[in-house]
Amino acid sequence: MSKLPLEDIRVIDFSWVLAGPFATRMLADMGAQVIKIESRRKIDGLRAYGPWRGEPTPPELGCGLFDLYNRNKLSIALDLTTPGGLEICKRLIAIGDIVVENYSVRGMEKFGLQYPVLQKINPRIVMISMAGLGQTGPYREYISFGPTLQALSGMSVLVGFPDRDPVGIGNSYPDHTAAVHAVIAVLAALDSRERTGKGQHIDLSQYESVTGLLGPQIMDYVANGRVPQRMGNRLPSASPHGCYRCQGDDRWCVISVFNDAEWQSLCKVMDKPALARDPKFATVQGRVSNSDELDRLVESWTVKYPPEEVMERLQKAGVAAGVVQNIEDLMVRDPQIKARGYYQEVEHPVTGVSALEGLPFQFSNLSWSMRSAAPILGEHTHQVLAEILKMPEEEIERFAQEGVFE
């Protein structure tokens, strides 16, 4: 396999749960050596989150969700509340390129590892702090999780139907957007370091990362003074635009029609050419104004067929349509995912063989595959100390007797 783009980069990873570990996983996937620092005193909470095969395993062994976001990493068990643990940590920072943390704003301060301290240890270090609401401002010390940030950002209130309560989003979307922004930021900082020779501290606000996704709604408010409301599946610029029941139990297909040509193609596929000439539906504005009636007409056709057939027939006619797939569809039946080899199997010594998501992109000059499963807590402690820090065995033993590796 060709050399991966970040093979010469070393990441000291203090992050936990999802946003930080997802960011460092992306760096690890691209070849960076990611050294994850945790201890039984401060264990990554994602280790106990599930799912499991059968009975839950002890947290230090890992589980499904932890395995997904921590593959290709090394794990060192290091108690930073001990002088020896802090000393070893600083040695790692001295030979590192990137430090990642997503604690609350005072998290690194508790260990005496704020950026000015790291900068003295290693002037070239790039540190990114991923607190939920950033390092400054009146909310800087607020506790936050994905659902908290979705609500604050204005996203949750927009999800749902206009005559019902807001429902929010089913997963921690802000964690994922923040992770992507974090990777972009550290790569930009590394590029700057190549030109200046100096590292820097990046203050990433997960809150702002997800708020930035509401661009059109913000523009509408700035331009027109309108506070956007929940619209269900509809858009003011497209119709039909919705989720339509199909043949089978809880089977659906999403259809989006943005112009008159697509509408005419849909009518042809439905074998209802007269609908295309109906004055109520002949224009986008007319279709939007009569969306309720139009949705009933479209669903009277989709309900006769499996969603896969609806999608295939409409896509062949140039109409955007997609099956509302469940996990079994993705893992077993989806031919596109299978053809691109998106899911890859990796074997964990405790949790067994799992199919994990791969990369959403492919390089023309290298092939990619997962190098290793997520680590057991402290699995690589000796390797990191002996091979990376070049510590003699007697020194490692001394630290062990001091309870540093707990």
How would you concisely characterize the structure shown here?
The protein has 406 residues and is of the alpha/beta class. The protein has 18 helices and eleven strands. It is elongated, with a radius of gyration of 26 Å.
Chain-wise SSE layout:
Elements (H helix, E strand, L loop, with lengths): L9 E4 L5 H11 L3 E6 L25 H6 L3 E5 L5 H12 L3 E4 L5 H4 L4 H7 L4 E4 L16 H8 L19 H24 L4 E3 L2 H6 L3 H10 L16 E5 L6 E5 L3 H10 L3 H5 L6 H6 L1 H12 L4 H10 L3 E4 L3 H7 L1 H5 L3 E6 L3 E6 L23 H8 L4 H9 L5
Parallel strand pairs: 1-2, 1-4, 2-3, 4-5, 5-6
Antiparallel strand pairs: 7-8, 8-9, 10-11
Helix pairs in contact: 1-7
Shape: elongated
Helix content class: 25-40%
Order of strands in the sheet with most strands: 3-2-1-4-5-6
* SS element count, helices: 18
Helix-strand sequence: EHEHEHEHHEHHEHHEEHHHHHEHHEEHH
Look at the structure and give the mean pLDDT.
Answer: 94
The rounded Rg comes to 26 Å
